[in-house]
Amino acid sequence: MKKWFWILPFFFLLMGNLNIYGESLQSFDAQIQVNESTPSTNDNYFDLQLKPGQESTLNVLVTNLKETEITIIPSFNRAKTNQLGVVEYSGRNQDRPNKLPIDIEKIVSVDKQKFTLAGHEQKKIPLTIKMPEKDFDGVIAGGLYLQEEPKEKTQGNIQHVFSREIAVLLKTQLNKIQPNLELKKAAPTQINQRNAIKATLENTNAAYLSSARIHYEIKKEQQQTPVLTGTQPISFAPNSGTDYLIFLEGKEFEPGTYQLMTNVKNKEINWQQKINFTISQKTAATYNEQNISTTKDEPQNNWLLWLAGGIIFALVLIIVFLLYLMRKKKR
């Protein structure tokens, strides 16, 4: 049971923005429309090189796949990196952006706020672009986010909706720059009553970090054996930052000074960084009292399992004894 404790926080972290794909699964489709004046280098999203000051309109064809009418809410949002190291375009999650050379939300707009599609109806959704007057290095990124408006009332944090997102990447030059990931700080935290370390990571360049993995180690001062190690996939949007979460897999906080070491790499880059942080006695006590995933619960769980097994075994013995008495009486 211990290994499941560290998986649960990821589920609960996403609950705040969870969309359950129930009956509305695949309720609509969205495809980019090729624009001859501004051709994209990809068929699934817009990857465009435009001139400074250029204006353009992009179209996305939205198709209702259902027999019944649906309502869709569109929005255009800057590409962000969430606390699990995933790039997303919903606009719901907050990241830690460093200096944005250009805010794509100010140069790309979606005309419609909400629209309705009859059964199997199609509509083109226009995106209007007004490029900055000057050249810029790298890429600025955002995305069209399309969400079906739920017809049923939501229960708690769960919504029965379907959503799609189409990325929009804009550049004025073909020169490719590499991402640059910096580890700014680390500190203890708690998410949904589960202990974690938040590592503030920032991608300071206008470039995506993709197909990468992060390996981390946490060591207590003057100890050689790591308190925690792990490896996870990670990605970053251009010019974005986040408090990346490292869950403690059911462990409690212990006061002291620690060192977090991170190694992020893919085929092109390899960053190794480390930073010290402190967990105070007060912080450890506060979080540990609220932590529901502590492994200290395991002995109690084992005791309950043994008790249940003992009860079942006793019932079996009683049944066998009663059957024996019944047979003996018949004789």
UniProtKB/TrEMBL annotation:
What keywords were assigned to this record? Membrane, Transmembrane, Transmembrane helix
The record places domain WxL Interacting Protein peptidoglycan binding at: 28-148
Q: Where are the transmembrane segments?
A: 303-325
Respond yes or no to whether keyword Membrane is given for this record: yes
Residue ranges constituting the WxL Interacting Protein host binding domain according to the UniProt record: 155-289
| Source organism, top-level taxon | Bacteria
InterPro entries named among the record's database cross-references: WxLIP_HBD, WxLIP_PGBD
Question: What is this protein called in UniProt?
Answer: DUF3324 domain-containing protein
Q: Which organism is it from?
A: Enterococcus hirae
